[in-house]
Amino acid sequence: MGEEKLTTLFRIDCGKIYLQEFTVEDAESIYNISNQPEIEKFLPDWKSTKEQRINWVVNYEIPENKAFLHAVRITTNIDDHILKLGICKKTTNEFIGWCCTGIKDELPAPNREIMYAVSSEYHNNGYQRKRQKDWLTICSKKRK
């Protein structure tokens, strides 16, 4: 047994949901949601095996999030950093989707792509609209 490391995760309160940086524990939920037909149709690059998803979360997505958050703390220039946040129900802490922002080659700088996915179980509950509104508010504040 090792000593547990206490880590404060970046979190944005959005009322009934919150957005939070990915953790290793989120990998299975991301895997399950990304393989739903409704999600796979629009985000085919997110489809993976469970092992691939764990690898991506641990070795790419968590470090990319840390780099983005570090860049925000030390400068206003986030360059080509990527931020991927889980969407979680506040009442149960259940991971129900994710939202991301990053540079997209097809958009002129400094424009960034904003994308999201919500589990099919939670479609038509207003979570996407609420998350989208809060996310855009936060992104616009960071640019000022």
From TrEMBL:
One annotated Gene Ontology cellular component of this protein: cytoplasm
Keywords linked to the UniProt accession: Transferase
InterPro entries: Acyl_CoA_acyltransferase, GNAT_dom, N-acetyltransferase
GO MF, any single term: protein-N-terminal-alanine acetyltransferase activity
Positions of the N-acetyltransferase domain: 17-129
Keyword Nucleotide-binding: no
SUPFAM superfamilies on file: Acyl-CoA N-acyltransferases (Nat) (SSF55729)
Protein name stated in the entry: Acetyltransferase, GNAT family
